[in-house]
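User: Can you help me understand a structure? I only have the sequence.
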Amino acid sequence: MVSIPAPAQTLLGSDAVAHVWTSNADGSPQVSVVWVITQADEILFGTNVNSQKAKNLARDPRILLSVEDTERSKRGFQRHLLIRGRASIEPGPDPVLMDELAMKYAGLARHPLALRDSPDCVVVRVMIDRISGVGPWIEQEQPLHS
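Assistant: Let's start by predicting it. Here is the structure, written out as tokens:
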């Protein structure tokens, strides 16, 4: 498992949403937007057990998350964080996690969706295999050549 560097922790701690890629049974991509939170060196989000992403992850745990930063690199590229990993699905609702996500993203003390207390709610826990993208979470940018 890869540790999350401090600059990536900062971005993941912001209100930037994550685009989550999973693989459908036919190999085509399935992409959705999720609210994420970090816990140690893992990334967590909640979803419905019947969602396509949960079904895909139950069959194939490979996952890719993309988080766009609000800043540009010194070279002018949009900074973004890419996380490749493996997901595990934890059954049962986690109202505390869902409320933490609601506070982080919407300033609400209680998650607005019924998913919060639903027995169909699951927690997806992402173990990181690789971090890449454009930004301070990777090795220093190569200088521009003249």
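Now, to help you interpret it: Residues 140-146 have pLDDT under 50 and may be disordered. The first strand starts at residue 18 and ends at 23. Let me know which part you'd like to focus on.
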